[in-house]
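ingest -> validate -> predict -> emit
validate: passed (alphabet ok, no gaps, 191 aa)
predict: started
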Amino acid sequence: MLERSAASRFAPGFVVFPGGALEPGDQSLARRWYGTTAEAARACGVRELYEETGILATSRGPMARPDRPRDIEQVDFDPIAPEAMPEMARWIAPEFLPVRFDARFYALAAPPGLEPEPDGIEIGRGWWAEADTVVARAAAGEAPLMWPTFKTLQALRECRTVADVLALHVPQVEPRPDEVGEALRLQGGRP
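emit:
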């Protein structure tokens, strides 16, 4: 889990998974790494994971890169294969939310002892946590979550193994009208 810094332009102070907006360069990364621009969202995930945590998703698995150059274009590596980093969810913001997004969530297996090194710009803190712990902190008002993160964490609570996580597919569930207040509260807003 990551906590976005107070200076972040999007969701400051929120607890999130690594990730961010698709950038124009992600299409060229996808073409270079995967041979097709259709993998631009996955390339974005690899890039954002690296930029925000120093973890590089390679063909041999994720590895720490604390001495990282800021730009992933300067790093020579073979990227993780798409099947080793499956998409577990896709969330498109419901119409009632003021900030619109189309977010894809990916999973990958990490070796024991791999620690995130937050970039100190967008991300203030990074740590490993069980889904139950993060959901409990959100319920206590200690960890603001976006609705997609909350629902994905709820689904992750049912996983018992890494294989369960890699096989997980979380369907998009928009908040029902009676859950809108809860969705906004989780996002640090007022119902």
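The chain has six helices and seven strands.
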